[in-house]
């Protein structure tokens, strides 16, 4: 299935059900992928790629950065080297 960048991609309910039956949690996996992407690309590009409002993309990017800072802070407190960032 191919969709234009302007179109929203949604998962049909039956597909979600079938994926869940085999152990795939579509929403959780989607959110994880979105979060990773938000940490890799600028918010404007994220908004265009996913056809979401730029405000949502900015919020996602900020959340990703805050969580990254939190992980780094915890690692310093525990004297653990944080995972490398690219």
Which labels suit this protein?
disordered N terminus, 86 residues, flat, mainly alpha, 63% helix
What does this structure look like?
- The chain is an all-alpha fold and 86 residues long.
- It has one domain (13-77).
- Helices cover 63% and strands 0% of the residues.
- The chain contains four helices and no strands.
- It has helices at residues 13-21, 26-38, 43-50, 54-77.
- Helix 2 (26-38) packs across helix 4 (54-77) and helix 3 (43-50) packs across helix 4.
- The protein starts with 12 loop residues before the first helix and ends in a 9-residue tail after the last helix.
- 6% of the residues are buried.
Report the sheet-strand fraction.
under 5%
Number of domains: 1
Order of helices and strands: HHHH
Largest sheet: none
Compute the separation of the termini in Å. Answer: 31 Å
Low-confidence runs:
1-8
Characterize the quaternary organization of these chains.
Answer: single chain
Helix content: 55-70%
Alpha-beta classification: mainly alpha
Name the shape in a single word.
flat
Overall pLDDT confidence = 76
| Count of β-strands | 0
Radius of gyration: 16 Å
Question: How many helical elements?
Answer: 4
């Amino acid at each position: 299935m191919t969709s234009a960048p302007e179109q929203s991609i949604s998962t049909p309910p039956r597909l979600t059900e079938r994926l869940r039956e085999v152990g795939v949690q579509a929403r959780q996996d989607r959110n994880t992928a979105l979060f990773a992407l938000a940490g890799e690309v600028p918010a404007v590009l994220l908004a265009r790629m996913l056809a979401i409002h730029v405000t949502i993309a900015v919020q996602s990017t900020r959340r990703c950065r805050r969580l990254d800072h939190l992980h780094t802070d915890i690692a310093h407190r525990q004297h653990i080297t944080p995972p490398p960032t690219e």
